[in-house]
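Late entry, written up from scratch paper. The run itself happened at the end of the previous shift, but nothing got recorded in the book at the time, so transcribing now.
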Amino acid sequence: MRFMVVQEIRIATRRLRVFGIVFLACWTGACASHRQTLPLGPGSPFPDFKEAFTEVITRYCTLNTLLAELRLSGRVGDSRLRGRVLAGLAEPGAVRLEGLAPFGPPAFIFVAQPGRAALLMPRESRALVGPSAIDIVGALTGIALTPDDLRYVLSGCLPETVQARTGVAYGQDWWTIETSDGSLVYLRRVGDFRRIVAIRRSGWLSEYSELSGRVPAQVRLTSNSASGAVDLTVLLSQVRINTTLDAATFVLDIPPDAVPITLSELRARGPLRASVEGAGR
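Output as recorded:
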């Protein structure tokens, strides 16, 4: 059956909807008041930084595919952002996003593979085909990320090609590592293992909490770039990793009667932002 795994996640999501809304509302409030403080200052030598970095990447970042329900809330520029999205991501550069509505068809379905991308808004029979994935993701959310970047941000990982350059220790439980791609990776001891709890790169800070599983259950993404401030929290549930995905997962059939929508129109509307504005009235 096409998109079987995504359908299974959707069914489980419906069954847990009422409980999940209450639980996640409480969870969000609790996490907001316990934001971790990242270490600053010169620290002390960390001679084993390369081994530590390799161990973390090997243990947690061998993710070929990622499936999850995402609950987004926060601000992007002057807009509030809120929504529920079913996400399927696979290397190299493949993504499927379904914007869930309270009932009925999805608000949007977006798929992309290297060199092609397509968006369908089933409720309005509007479609966009051809532009790059990063442009459409940026129009939907206000944050321009490639499919691979999105997978890394959500999973709290870096590409396997990235190497550790220098390391600093802060006591017995905190470390930072500068990497070959210019990132600053924050490690913290969680239980018996080091975990990536934050990554600072190219003006962005991604922070990770609720680390009981292999993938963090909460991601906070912030930026104060010239294009506008971002403070977005993503809660992940129904997570599956390294699940075999049928090639059809990343193919979208556009109805022949669908009316084209331009990238500018999509950017002005921003489906995830529009749903917030409507809900806030």
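Residues 129 and 249 are 16 Å apart (CA to CA).
(Scratch paper discarded after transcription.)
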